[in-house]
Amino acid sequence: MSMDRRTFLQLSAAGALALPALAAEPRNGMPYRTLGKTGEAVSLLCLGGYHIGGKELTDAEATAIMRRAVDEGVNFFDNAWQYHDGRSEERMGQALKDGYRDKVFLMTKHKGLDAARAQEHLETSLRRLEVDVIDLWQFHEIVHPEQPKRIYQNGALDFALKARDEGKIRYIGFTGHHINSTHLEMLAGGFDWDTIQMPLNVFDYHFRSFQRNVMPKALEKNLGVIAMKTLGGSPGNLLDSKVVSAEECLRYSMSLPVSTVVSGMDSMAVLEKNLALAKAFQPMADDEREALLARVRPEAAPGRFEVYKTQWHRGSIPVPPGEDPNPEDFFDS
Q1: How many CB atoms lie within 10 A of CB 148?
Q2: CB distance 23 to 76 below 8 Å
Q3: Tens digits of per-residue pLDDT, 133-192?
Q4: Structural domain boundaries of the chain?
């Protein structure tokens, strides 16, 4: 089934593809964008926290990668309470010493669905990161349909607001990469979120799409949109399709109206490659984007390269009503 230009522009919601305004002059060649309603200036490239805690890196190597990223203009650092049993946060805390903390917009994530659990996770993250304040604290992995209700009703949001009032965190957001209807429930719940983090890649456009179903709603609310899973996960599952390159994947996601693009970088070589790509970034033209989407479309069926949308802890994620229950009819129409 082909995709003509009129259909492409309608589905893309052409206005929604307008890039966020530049927040500041590039720093060491790194473009900066505005993080939604927060007004914060953040680098187009974000250093992912998961890979930095991997066993294949020594503590010294991890610190060198993080400090090199900052020196080259990366100011957005991603992390999460559970990454490598805390090693990612501990390493980041070490790297942010010697004045580097003042140069970084620091984000970490947690899985507290009630006040007590949220407090435990925040106190642990502050201790591991060795900081007094976390710039952005996000509810992580909103996966199952009951989670939005629990977050809204079990005191977790009340605690987050209290922590913000006490100066322990500055902004509040949430993440998820499985069922996009849970994102919509979080947005519809009434809380004034600052940010949202979701999978945004060239395959996502065709299957249970966050780009098409969630991102427009987030932009209407002026949330800072943080792109993840740009290569389809870890390792880069989309690259297994053999129809798209890592450079195309990153450039596609950077061409969306996102504030920053998270990338896992587990070596200095990968960091340098991503730095060069971000610094040379030019948005994809409509024709180029159309051609790329058309090329990958057959390979996107039925989400086999985005396994996080179809599997969870070796099980199958139930498909909510209206979210492509028939694998043979998986394309959004």
Answers
A1: 24
A2: no
A3: 999 999 999 988 899 999 999 999 999 999 999 999 999 999 999 889 999 999 999 999
A4: 5-329
Cα-based distances in Å from 65 to 69, 106, 131, 255:
6, 16, 20, 25
What is the number of residues in the chain?
A: 333
Q: Which of 83, 171, 205, 252 is catalytic?
A: 83
Q: Is 32 a catalytic residue?
A: no
Distance CA 157, CA 150 (A): 10
Would you call 97 exposed, middle or buried from its count of C-beta atoms within 10 A (0-12, 13-18, 19+)?
A: exposed
Residue-wise over 256-289: b if at least 16 C-beta within 10 A, else e?
Answer: bbbbbbbbbbbeeeebebbbebbbebeebeeeeb
Helix (H, G, I), strand (E, B) or coil at 261: strand
| Backbone phi, psi, residue 227, to 5° | -90, 135
Q: How far apart are CA 106 and CA 125, in angstroms?
A: 11
Element housing 77 (H / E): strand 76-77
CA pair distance 241, 248, nearest whole angstrom: 13
Residue (of 186, 42, 166) closest to 113 by Cα position: 186
pTM of the predicted model as reported, rounded to 2 decimal places = 0.91
Residues of the chain under the 50 pLDDT cut: 1-16, 313-314, 321-333
Angle at 88 (CA atoms; ends 86, 94), nearest 5 degrees? 105
CA distances (Å), origin 174, targets 146, 273, 295: 15, 29, 32
CATH for the 5-329 domain, from 3.20.20.100, 3.40.50.720, 3.30.565.10, 1.10.3720.10: 3.20.20.100
d(CA 268, CA 66): 9
Dihedral sign for Cα atoms in the order 33, 163, 67, 250: negative
For residues 152-162, one letter each, b for 16 or more C-beta atoms within 10 angstroms of the residue's C-beta and e for the rest, the string is: bebbbbebbee
* DSSP three-state, residue 213: helix
H/E segment holding residue 272: helix 268-279
